[in-house]
Amino acid sequence: MKIGKVELKDNLFLAPMAGVTNLPFRLMCVEEGCSLTYTEMVSAKALYFEDKKTMELLETTDKDSPCGVQIFGSDPEIIAKVIKTKINKMDFALIDINAGCPAPKIVKNDEGSALMKTPDLIGKIIENAVKVSKKPVTLKIRAGWNDEQINAVEVARVAERAGAAAVAIHGRTREQFYSGKADWDVIKKVKDSVSIPVIGNGDVDSRRSAQRMIESTGCDGVMVGRAALGNPWIFNADKVFQVSDELKIQKCKTYFENLLKIKPEKVALGEIRKHASWFTKGIRGSGEFRNKINKTTSVAEVFLLIDEYRNKTVQKNL
Fold first, then answer.
1. Which of 29, 67, 101, 252 is the catalytic position?
2. What does the pLDDT read at residue 237?
3. What is the pLDDT of residues 53-110, one digit of tens each?
4. Residue 274 has what pLDDT?
5. What domains can be seen in the chain, in order of their start residue?
6. Best exposed site among 31, 105, 187, 218 by fewest CB in 10 Å?
7. Comparing C-alpha atoms, which of 214, 83, 192, 198 is closest to residue 137?
8. Which positions ≥6 away from 44 have C-beta within 8 Å?
9. Are strands 6-7 and 2-3 parallel, antiparallel or unpaired?
10. For residue 318, pLDDT beyond 70
11. Quick check: 130 and 137 in contact, CB under 8 A?
12. 34 an active-site residue?
């Protein structure tokens, strides 16, 4: 698959997720065969003012390639300015504009999926971004704002005319958040309406379901979100059905080790709690393990708890 001039070895991608797709997690997914990852979404305004925490979200390495940076905002001029003065100088493969995030704190500022209510503004954002960008500009959208405003096809066409190199669509409305079922028919309608690559998203929890989405919608690629939480192996066809509990727990430890290299201890402790929950989901005794992890304030104790849990799990599985 190709997005602009960016050649991709596969068509299964890691979706941008706030609080999840940091550098250590992206690298894990790349190691398992993921052909395209994305940063956590970053605020265009925060980038404009060079907010320290926001700039840290853009950390990357040569191994983290190709990686797209996802920007959210509603001011075409500010978005274009941060692309021209900052993003163009960074080693990202492409720039994705977020018109899909349903979070209230984003939507209340007319950003994220709130943009689905103003297709013309989306067009202006894309057009301004394309004019200054040295990288392909893509767009991530939802089916629409609500069931009465299903306008993904219209928005995708606007984006294509404005110069977008690809469009990714989550088959739910903003009103749905992540409830109910993703509407793959909307993805098919978008694919049938534009000539640029279309990336489907929503209710894909395995390589098998990703293939079903491609077959039923004709989409060019598939973006995996929540199904990748604690499960970077979803990108590795050889390991999907043979990941041991011991390996899952060991990966949890490796993730924490790598997180500590780029985050302050207090921040890393907060993040490992949710990731530990995802990595150990479904493993016997995981509830007790998570409770202990959630109560500790010591890095050393986290490592001790992980090692103890792994050893207990190995013994039980003998």
1. 101
2. 78
3. 999 999 999 899 899 999 999 999 999 999 999 999 999 999 999 999 999 999 999 9
4. 94
5. 2-235 (3.20.20.70), 245-317 (1.10.1200.80)
6. 105
7. 83
8. 71, 72, 73, 75, 78, 79, 82
9. antiparallel
10. no
11. yes
12. no
